[in-house]
Structures are given as C-alpha cells and as structure tokens.
Design goal:
It is an enzyme of class 4 (lyase). By secondary structure, the chain is of the alpha/beta class. The chain has helices at residues 13-22, 24-27, 36-45, 60-69, 89-102, 110-122, 127-134, and strands spanning 3-8, 31-34, 50-52, 75-79, 106-107. The chain has one domain (3-134): Methylglyoxal synthase-like domain (Rossmann fold, 3-Layer(aba) Sandwich), CATH 3.40.50. It contains seven helices and five strands, in the order βααβαβαβαβαα. The protein has a five-stranded parallel sheet, with helices on both faces. The longest helix is centred in the C-terminal third of the chain and has 14 residues, at 89-102.
Length: 139
C-alpha cells in the first residue's frame, strides 16, 4: 500500500482540500499522512482517514521527513506558498532535500500534484518496487 503525505501552507490549505475532494477516489485505498491542520481540513471535507502529525511549524514537517528518511513514504503533496516567508523555512528545505536524496516524488503546486495523482491512478508508481529490489543491503 502506498504512503502519501499532504502538507499545505495556510494560504494553500483550500487548494489541497479541493485536490483531495477531486481525487478522493484515488486516495481512498492509500495510507495517508498529514501535518495537523491540513489533515483535519481534508478529513472534514472528505471520507478519507489521515494519520495527522504535529502542525508543520511545531515539527510535523520533520515527522514526515523522518518517514522519508526511513523509506516509508511514496509521494509527498506539499502545497507551498511561494509568496509568503515561512518561519520554519529550514524544516521545509530539509523535507524537500530528503525527497530529492531518497527519490520521493514531491509536488509543490497544483499542476505537478495533478500529474502525479493521475500517474498514481494509472498505476505508474511501479518504479518504487524497482528501487527496493536494487537498493544496496545494509550490513
């Protein structure tokens, strides 16, 4: 089962809720995670069940980052607000870096999110199993 994380800055929460409503049928059989308020808002608008971590500024971004570092996350949808400075910007940068280091697809805007969700719906995420097969064994 694929693990998906939802994160959204305050001015992007409505966008991520609308995305979850539009693609609820794709997300319903996935294991979903989110930062606090974002997850609450999505659950209020859909029938999706989401494991909620702390709010992003209180460590939720880092909790999701820990899952990425442990190869326990398959997709991150992070609706960032590029026009507003964030007080926890170092946490955001660290999360995005972890996605790059571990090859986790991350969408930071609606266009990319929709492309990744449509690929997910088509079953195009088989490459994750290939990564696991060819990953060096820890000694």
């Amino acid at each position: 089962m694929l693990n998906i994380a939802f994160i959204a800055h305050d001015r992007k929460k409505e966008d991520i809720v609308n995305l979850a409503v539009a693609y609820e049928h794709v997300f319903k059989d996935k294991k979903l995670y989110s930062t606090g308020t974002t997850g609450q808002r999505i659950m209020e608008a859909t029938s999706l069940k989401i494991h909620r971590f702390l709010s992003g500024p209180l460590g939720g971004d880092q909790q999701i980052g820990a899952m990425i570092a442990q190869n326990e996350m398959d997709l991150v949808i992070f609706m960032r607000d590029p026009l507003m400075a964030q007080p926890h910007e170092p946490d955001i940068t660290a999360l995005l870096r972890l996605c790059d280091v571990h090859g986790i697809p991350v969408a930071t805007n609606m266009a990319t999110a929709e492309i990744l969700i449509k690929a997910l719906d088509r079953g195009d995420f088989g490459w994750r199993e290939l990564v696991e097969l060819h990953k060096p064994k820890a000694e």
